[in-house]
Design a protein that fits this description.
Blueprint lengths: L7 E15 L4 E5 L5 E5 L5 E4 L14 H4 L5 E11 L2 E11 L1 E3 L2 E2 L6 H17 L34 E4 H18 L2 H18 E4 L4 E4 L2 E5 L2 E5 L11 E2 H6 L2 H10 L2 H18 L10 E2 L17 E3 H5 L1 H13 L2 H17 L12 E3 L14 E3 H15 L5 H18 L10 E3 L17 E2 H18 L2 H17 L11 E2 L22 H19 L3 E5 L10 E3 L10 E8 L2 E3 L2 E2 L4 E3 L9 E7 L4 E7 L3 E10 L4 H12 L5 E12 L1 H14 L4 E5 L4 H8 L5 E3 L8
Parallel strand pairs: 3-6, 4-6, 30-31, 31-32, 32-33
Antiparallel strand pairs: 1-2, 1-5, 2-3, 5-6, 7-8, 9-12, 10-11, 12-13, 14-15, 16-17, 18-19, 20-21, 22-28, 23-27, 24-25, 24-28, 26-27, 29-30
InterPro entries: 6-hairpin_glycosidase_sf, 6hp_glycosidase-like_sf, AGE/CE
Pfam families: GlcNAc_2-epim (PF07221)
Protein name: AGE family epimerase/isomerase
């Protein structure tokens, strides 16, 4: 009898770093993230592109593919895999480059995440408010629907008699819209966030004055006959209970809006919802917070709760920090918020680690903190994103409470997760896996599928970005880049807008059932826009040394002592500073650079506040402006090989408007290297003889002489060197 035929052919993807290119055989070597070596064959049926952002057109690189296969460059390859006994061959059909050139990842451009935020926020505005705002610029949230289709329209099944509006879905979208305003300053996003917050307060909020608390409905159903309040949760995991995470996420949108406006009514809602947590969810005996309450008795130990009786979980402990608590602290600086952050971080550091039983944290507990490994769908399983979320948030909280055990656990999670939670062939991060390795294979088996969810990619990107920024560890930065590359290569929907809920292991969108939707109980723009905001902050302020611009709109007298706090996140003290402030588009000087606060002037109307935050140790500050004829390029610091890409980027943007004259303000430049001079010569030649490159003011003699030696520059010593 003949041996069985083991030949197989299938399509798949693989990601890694180019190790070599062999033009004679038209193939290249590729090393995956975990160090395995592969050979990729090319042929005539090949296309390639650079990862593009939402709102951008295709960036085809088909003719340049082979020239771009430089050693060390990270690539995604989709193609045909042929396998047989003793052999394998991979033939590439599509190559995707997340770098424009080696080391220059597209998502590290200062405007990448800002542009993406605007595109995603506009997608949700179009979807939920197809008629746009009213004459007053406000959005009518009565038209909001929890479910939104792939293309950004309301689900037809929910345009009949009854329409569900879930509180948390609205709140998460409000968070995203408020965040988009902070990044872009676009009025429509703030108008929608403020009107959404008002809608939540009017329709979903219950103020119990007798108990001194606020709680939030699960949602409301709207019909022609009126509204039906949905008190207890009707989501499957939490049915007929009041889950803490729903109360937590009801605060997400309003709290972010409060950071911008200072509306005291929102702060009162935050305080009284926290009072709800303290009054009913807190376990006074053994610490922490219970996950569910009986809706009638408000008792976390009621028999009616069934499997949720006397339980604690990741959501009831860990979700406070990212959903509302860090933002509430950033807006107020209050000690009680700080202490609650410390308490939740202490609880996580003490209760959640589970080595040597499992490399994953324990996520569910009984009331006495014994592990619950039989609950519902989770059983003894790990959600990869929750582990990464812990690493991210403990790193943030350590900036406020400097406890070594926070960073020790964060670093340990970051070290363990790639091998047990990531796809080390294709890139990206898995969903739910078994907490204990299979004894036969030694692997932590996937539970239901090998799909990858958008929000778990976010947790990985932010965890490794903030760890890279705080520690300077190149391994963290590598993993952050790989995670961001996978997300931006495969989750952005260029056809309909927004981001996909899930993709298959190879990056192809998975468009079945609720995972086809872009609005649901689980998805509402929150994670995608949180990612845009914090990736922009961490990348620029902690890694690439680029400033971050944020926008605020404080109401008259809203903030105590007229003090607006503008810190972008919990970052190591002294790592960033407030560099510039504008109020109503005019420069403003009454601010504290180190405390990141602005002393607001008295006003009878909301103020338009724009701030620029930058790294405290910024080697090169470079910016440009254009007055219709002359491009002005302002530089301060060192222009060497390390800062060349930043200098090139600013120079390219300044020259793109085709100025008739280019003035370089260099009086605060302490050093200029030969690569930067060569870049200037290269660009000078492209501009033509009719465009003058002029050194303005009195720069250091060695800087001026180095540039004049090229015979490509003029000097205007009579002009003032302006650096602001």
């Amino acid at each position: 009898m003949n041996a069985p035929d083991t030949r197989r052919m299938y399509s798949d993807s693989i990601a890694g770093y180019v190790t070599s290119y062999d033009p004679a055989h038209d193939r290249f070597g590729l090393r995956t993230s975990d160090g395995r070596e592969f050979t990729i064959h090319l042929n005539g049926f090949l296309s390639s592109e650079i990862v593009r952002n939402l709102g951008d057109g295709p960036r085809d690189t088909g003719e340049a593919t082979r020239d771009m296969l430089a050693e060390g460059r990270y690539v995604f390859v989709y193609g045909l895999f042929y396998r047989w006994d003793g052999g394998e061959r991979i033939e590439a059909r599509q190559i995707t480059f997340p770098e424009t050139s080696r080391g220059n990842y597209v998502f590290e451009h200062p405007n990448w995440w800002v542009q993406q935020a605007a595109e995603i926020a506009d997608f949700y505005l179009r979807g939920h408010f197809p008629d746009g705002p009213g004459k007053d610029g406000r959005y009518d949230w009565r038209s909001f629907r929890t479910r939104l289709t792939l293309s950004g329209t309301h689900v037809p099944d929910f345009t009949g008699d009854d329409v569900r509006q879930e509180t948390d879905t609205i709140s998460r979208l409000v968070y995203g819209l408020a965040t988009a305003f902070m990044l872009t300053g676009e009025e429509r996003f703030l108008n929608a966030a403020e009107s959404g917050t008002e809608y939540l307060r009017e329709h979903m909020r219950v103020a119990d004055d007798a108990e001194g608390v606020v709680y939030w409905y699960h949602g409301i159903d709207i019909s022609e006959a009126g509204q039906r309040k949905v008190y207890a949760s009707e989501f499957g995991d939490d049915f007929d209970a009041i889950p803490m995470y729903e109360q937590i996420y009801a605060l997400a949108g309003p709290t972010q809006t409060y950071r911008i406006t200072g509306d005291p009514r929102i702060l009162d809602d935050i305080d009284r919802t926290v009072a709800l947590f303290e009054r009913f969810f807190r376990d006074e005996d053994q610490g922490g917070f219970f996950s569910h309450l009986d809706p009638i008795t408000m008792d976390p130990r009621a028999d009616s709760l069934g499997r949720n009786r006397s339980r604690k979980n990741w959501n009831s402990i860990g979700d406070h920090a990212p959903a509302y608590l860090i933002n509430a602290y950033l807006a107020t600086g209050r000690e009680d918020f700080s202490k609650l952050l410390e308490e939740t971080a202490d609880t996580i550091a003490e209760r959640f680690p589970d080595e040597p039983v499992s490399p994953f944290v324990q996520e569910r507990f009984h009331g006495d903190w014994s592990a619950d490994r039989t609950w519902g769908w989770q059983q003894n399983r790990a959600v990869v994103g929750h582990n990464l979320k812990i690493a991210w948030n403990l790193t943030r909280i350590r900036a406020l409470h400097d406890k070594a055990r926070y960073s020790e656990l964060a670093e340990r999670i970051a070290e363990l997760m790639p091998a047990v939670g990531s796809d080390q062939q294709r890139g990206g991060w898995y969903d739910v896996v078994e907490r204990v390795a299979d004894p036969d294979t030694g692997a932590h088996h996937l539970v239901w599928h090998d799909r990858k969810a958008w929000w778990q990619q976010e947790q990985a990107i932010l965890a490794y970005l903030v760890l890279a920024g705080v520690s300077g560890d190149p391994e963290h930065r590598r993993l952050a880049r790989e995670s961001a590359a996978f997300y931006n290569a495969f989750f952005l929907d260029y056809d309909d807008g927004g981001v996909y809920f899930n993709v298959l292991a190879n990056g192809i969108p998975y468009l079945v059932g609720t995972e086809r939707l872009k609005g649901s109980h689980s998805m509402a723009g929150y994670h995608a826009l949180e990612l845009c905001y914090l990736a922009a902050a961490y990348t620029g302020l902690l890694i690439t040394s680029a400033p971050l611009t944020l926008h605020f709109r404080p109401q008259p007298g809203a903030f105590p002592d007229h003090l607006l706090r503008v810190a972008p996140d919990l970052l190591p003290y002294g790592s960033v500073q407030l560099a510039r402030v504008w109020i109503d588009d005019e420069p403003y000087e009454d601010f504290d650079p180190k405390q990141l606060t602005v002393r607001l002037p008295l006003s009878s109307r909301p103020l338009k506040v724009r701030v620029e935050i930058e790294p405290a140790d910024m080697r090169l500050r470079v910016s440009s402006d254009f007055d219709g004829k002359t491009a002005h390029i302002h530089c301060e610091g060192v222009i060497d090989r390390e800062e060349l890409e930043k200098f090139r980027r600013c120079l390219t943007e300044a020259l793109s408007v085709e100025p008739r004259r280019v003035e370089f303000h260099l009086c605060k430049v302490t050093e200029i290297g030969r690569p930067a001079i060569n870049e200037l010569l290269f660009q000078r030649a492209k501009m033509g003889l009719e465009v003058d490159f002029v050194i303005v003011g009195c720069s250091l003699p060695e800087v001026t002489s180095a540039l004049l030696a090229t015979d490509a520059f003029l000097v205007d010593e009579d002009r003032t060197c302006v650096t602001d």
